[in-house]
Description:
Blueprint: H1 15-22, H2 26-38, H3 45-58, H4 61-73, H5 80-92, H6 96-105, H7 111-123, H8 127-139, H9 146-159, H10 162-174, H11 181-193, H12 197-205, H13 212-224, H14 228-240, H15 247-260, H16 263-275, H17 282-294, H18 298-306, H19 313-325, H20 329-341, H21 348-361, H22 364-376, H23 383-395, H24 399-407, H25 414-426, H26 430-442, H27 449-462, H28 465-479, H29 485-497, H30 501-509, H31 517-530, H32 533-546, H33 552-564, H34 567-579, E1 588-593, E2 596-601, H35 610-626, H36 646-649, H37 652-663, E3 670-674, H38 680-693, E4 697-700, E5 705-709, E6 712-713
Parallel strand pairs: 3-4
Antiparallel strand pairs: 1-2, 1-3, 4-5, 5-6
Helix pairs in contact: 1-2, 1-3, 2-3, 2-4, 3-4, 3-5, 4-5, 5-6, 5-7, 6-7, 7-8, 7-9, 8-9, 9-10, 9-11, 10-11, 11-12, 11-13, 12-13, 13-14, 13-15, 14-15, 15-16, 15-17, 16-17, 17-18, 17-19, 18-19, 19-20, 19-21, 20-21, 21-22, 21-23, 22-23, 23-24, 23-25, 24-25, 25-26, 25-27, 26-27, ...
Amino acid sequence: MNHACRVPDSFCNGDKLSKLCEEGRLKEALHILELMVQQTTKPQIQAYVCLLKGCSRRKALTEGKQVHALIVQSVLDSNIFLANTLIHMYSKCGSVLHAHKVFSNMPQHNVYSWTAIISAYADSGEVEEAINLFHQMQETGLAPDKVLFVVVLKACARLATLEQGKQLHSEIIKRGFQSDVVVGNTLVNMYAKCGCTEDARELFDNMSERDVVSWNAMIAGYAQNGLGKDALALFEQMKQEGMQPNNVTFVLLLNACASLAALEQGKQLHSEIIKRGFQSDVIVGRTLVDMYAKCGCTEDARGLFDNMTERDVVSWTAMIAGYAQNGLGKEALALYEKMKQAGVQPNSVTFVLLLKACASLAALEQGKQLHSEIIKKGFLSDVVVGSTLVDMYAKCGCTEDARELFDNMSERNVVSWNAMIAGYAQNGLGKDALALFEQMQREGMKPDEVTYISVLSACAHSGLVDQGRYVFDSMCKNHGVTPTKEHYACMVDLLGRAGCLADAELFMNKMPIQPNSVVWMTLLGAARNHGHVEIGRRAFDRVVKLEPKNASPYVLLSNIYAAAGKTDELAKIRNEMKEAGVKKMPGCSWIEVDNQLHAFVVGDATHPQSKEIQAELDRLVGLMKKAGYKPNLSFVLDDVEDEEENALCGHSEKQAIAFGLINTPFGTPIRIKKNLRVCGDCHNATKIISKIVGRDISVMDATRYHHFKDGFCSCGDYW
Length: 719
């Protein structure tokens, strides 16, 4: 061999290779190893191990395969230590098939071999196979060690297979491993993940030794099972016993506060975090942001976010989520622009949240821009992103675009089907929703309870009473879905909209569960639509008992009295409303023009173009009256408490329509989003406006889409 190509002997023990691998210079290290294999002096086993570990850290599968080839070339593939390291490398590089191939070709296995392959399957999410392999190992007569028990217990926790977990627990006791703190911690975690918090707590209390991981496991168990108060109480005990919390402890406790909306306790934790110096921790920082946002304190969350010394994509996404979850979609979209300017790349969760913000605002153009970015960044194949895109287009009234996306999805789950069915329901396309529901079942996708809510809602909004009854009856019989209060509310809505108020009330009386405020409100809404005073009053009394501070029942009953000409009762109900200190949420509508969202609140004249908007409204009212429009004063309380006819012209969707007409080219469709249900007067007015101005007008209210064209609405006046 040419002396110039000879590798110095100092490389053969792996020290130099180790340095190259630690620095990530795998190709250089691999080249040296290839030269070493070619020399008379073969490299020591440690050299191969060093490179394999480097490949594991960097998830360098290609280089790992090349090292494997050199091992075979050196006739070392039968070495059990190297084989175990190969299995570990393939596992870390995400290739379980290669790991299993190495395992299958081994002439013999030790407990470390089984641990490596079981870990490979468990880490890849193939938990059932991991547990099966554990049972196969036991059949060979090999005794598992405590490390293997920990691996398999974690697998049981992920699958929530309680019985198998209990069997492992028994074996652990027999082999004397229960006193090991790591094994004990994993047992606590397993029981908690299987929903057995009492068993987990009993184990925790009886542990002979507990470290911070033990406390965190039990705190996490409480938090994950919706027992946030118990998690916070355990933290107090933890401090009393002198155990110091770490950053993980605070993350778990902040999550518990977020789930409880326990702002004061969250603030106390914040103070402790500052005292203990954890505020600069990136994960703690973003969890604080999330906690404040979920407690409704978006300004506090933003202040924390702006002061973070380090912000990663998860931090930005947490703040975007805070805005989106608090109905501040406009702010969420604005923050995303700053995120891009900061050079932070969004992930799939970021896009899902932003698409939901667009859907809530009916911001179609911004949704389309996000769609383009999703394609560029390669997230379109993500089933969650794809499903949320379908939902966004449907909620912006573009059911054809939504369906095209749905049909072209490379993978669809039940959420995808639900999004499209709900999209049809919200746009009043009941027959399309039913057809897709039938297709869903033909293709072998099992409907869940959300599917049935969407299908029943579609039937309700389209007057498909018989079909709705059939779907409700078959839900339990054919698919084993137990009806919830939401399903019962849909059935009351179905019957009530169709004018079958007596049937709806009888249905409620026969329900196996007590109707909640939503069900009674549904009946009250139906009574308003059909002018049924007695049923309306009975429903009103029930809702007010359940939700005394809710303004909606007062508004609906006042509309019923106004329509029936019962002026005395109307005056009484309005006085009751004032005495109860109940205030109605103001109507608000949004319209997107040139990628900018403009919001209008009932009676508000602060918009820069308010004079032009009022002038356009005056022009429209004049034309509408010539076309036969007469304001319906029974709906005046839907947005304002002024009884004058002019108040109806101040309804937020009318302002938004006027703004859209004066700021968009002739023929451009107008899309509006409203936070409340469209009132009957605005519905009639919008039909007339669509004919007068020759524009398609879409209004997404709190329950569904209305598409107005040439004097007609897609709902057929059935909403």
